[in-house]
Task: structure prediction
Amino acid sequence: MIVADERKLRQILVNLLSNAVKFTPPGGKICIRCASADDGGLLLSVTDSGQGMTHAEMDVALERFGRVEKSGTRGIEGFGLGLPLTRALVELHGGTLELSSEPGSGTKATVAMRSLEIGLPNPTH
Ligand SMILES: Nc1ncnc2c1ncn2[C@@H]1O[C@H](COP(=O)(O)OP(=O)(O)OP(=O)(O)O)[C@@H](O)[C@H]1O
Ligand SMILES: [Mg+2]
Result:
């Protein structure tokens, strides 16, 4: 169980999914996964089989207004704000956003959210 702003959590997922759709050519594959982390938190990942990015390109992608120019992406619209905004929203929830990518073999974006900590009364008191 996690505590999150429902609208913002939806925006996080929509941003990651819209990137996967935009930067994956027709016939590609996009996968959303949800799993529990070892620490009890929640892992949400969006994986695509699109054009991917190098390490340097991922750094650019996470900057405000950072867009990676590639031959296949000219004409694809965007401000370059989705990823930095997504990371800020995830971090405001106490979570983390990680990207892993290989040029030509796709991208995986993983959001790790912390679990809800419930203070249960101690039965010995
Ligand atoms: N799944 C992905 N595969 C390949 N490149 C990506 C992917 N996601 C993001 N990028 C690269 O990172 C850049 C920044 O992504 P970001 O979501 O911040 O901006 P955008 O999608 O271009 O515009 P906006 O989200 O503001 O509409 C993109 O322009 C693209 O070059
Ligand atoms: Mg985007």
Observations:
- The pocket of adenosine-5'-triphosphate (ligand 1) is lined by residues 19-20, 22-23, 48, 50-53, 61, 66-68, 73, 78-84, 107 (CB under 6 Å).
- The domain at 6-113 is CATH 3.30.565.10 (Heat Shock Protein 90).
- The chain has one domain: 6-113.
